[in-house]
Amino acid sequence: xxxxxxxxxxxxxxxxxxxxxxxxxxxxxxxxxxxxxxxxxxxxxxxxxxxxxxxxxxxxxxxxxxxxxxxxxxxxxxxxxxxxxxxxxxxxxxxxxxxxxxxxxxxxxxxxxxxxxxxxxxxxxxxxxxxxxxxxxxxxxxxxxxxxxxxxxxxxxxxxxxxxxxxxxxxxxxxxxxxxxxxxxxxxxxxxxxxxxxxxxxxxxxxxxxxxxxxxxxxxxxxxxxxxxxxxxxxxxxxxxxxxxxxxxxxxxxxxxxxxxxxxxxxxxxxxxxxxxxxxxxxxxxxxxxxxxxxxxxxxxxxxxxxxxxxxxxxxxxxxxxxxxxxxxxxxxxxxxxxxxxxxxxxxxxxxxxxxxxxxxxxxxxxxxxxxxxxxxxxxxxxxx
Length: 385
Hints:
With 385 residues, the protein is α+β, with helices and mostly antiparallel strands. Among the domains are: 104 residues, no CATH class; 136 residues, Histidine kinase-like ATPase, C-terminal domain (Heat Shock Protein 90). 72% of the residues lie in helices and 10% in strands. It has a five-stranded mixed beta sheet with strand order 1-2-3-5-4. The chain is elongated, with a radius of gyration of 41 Å.
C-alpha cells in the first residue's frame, strides 16, 4: 500500500517537474515582462498534489540545470538568474498563502468565517462582473463578425478593381503598340520615300550643275547631307517605334538587327542565341519578346556600365524563355519595383507586357554577378511545341 502511494507521488512529482521545465523555458524566452501566472498555476497544482516546498526547490534546481546543459554556450547572467528566481517565488506564492491562512485559522475560526463571507461576497461580485464581461464579449464578437464580412467585401472589391486596372493596362499597351506600328509604317512608307526622292533629285541637280556653278553644287551637297542625316534619324525613329523587319521577316532578324546596332553604338560585346521555333509565336507574343529585349538593353546602356551582354531564346516544355544577362552593376530589385521613388519604370512596363500574354517575368541582380532579366511565355493553344 505504501509502495503504491510512493509511486503515485513520484509520478505526480515527475509530471510537475516536466511541466515546470517547459513553463520556465517559455518564461525565460519571453523576457522580463513575461507573465508569472503560469508559475502561480503550477504552484496551485503542486499544492493540490501535496508536493512540498523542498520538493519544489529540487524541481527548480533540476530545471535550471537542464536549461543550462541543453545549451552549454549560454551563460547564466544576473538577469536570467533573477527572472528564474522570480518565477520560482511566484510558484511558491500559493503554498505560502495557504500556509499563512492555515496558521491564521488555527486559533481564529471566527475570522475564517468572516473571511469566508467576504470571499463569498467577492465571488458573487466577480460572478456578476464575469456575466457582464460575457455579454460584452458577445457584443464584440458580433461586431467582429460584421467587420469581417465588411472586410471580405472590401477585399473582393479590391481584387476586382485590381483585375480591372490590369486589363486596362493591357489594353493601353496593346493600343500603344498598334499606334507605334501605324506611325512606323507611315513614316517608313511616306516620309522615308519622300526624303529619298528629294535626295535623288538633289543628286541629279548636283551632277547637272557641276560644270560651272560651284555655289549651287555646294548648297546641293549641304542639302544632301541634311537629307541623309534626316534619313538616318528617321530610320532610327522607325526602328525604335516598331521596326518593319519585325513584321516582315520575324523576331530573330529584328533582334539581330537591334543587337548589331546596340553593339555599334555602345561598344558592348553581344552574344545572341535563338532557335527558329520562336517564329511560330503569334505577332503579339513576338512583339512582347522584342520589347523586353529592347527595354532591357536600354537599361544596360543607361545604368549597368556593362562590357558584355548575352541574349538567349531557349525552348521549355510548352513555353519559350528569353534571358538577357549583363556583367554590369547590380541594383536592388525589390526597391526598383516597389520603392516610393521608382527609378526603373521600364521594369514595370516589361512585366506588364509579359503578363499581358499570360507569361512570367523575373529579374535577378547580385553584386559581382550582374543582372538577368527573364521572361517565359507559354505557347498556350497555338499548337506549337
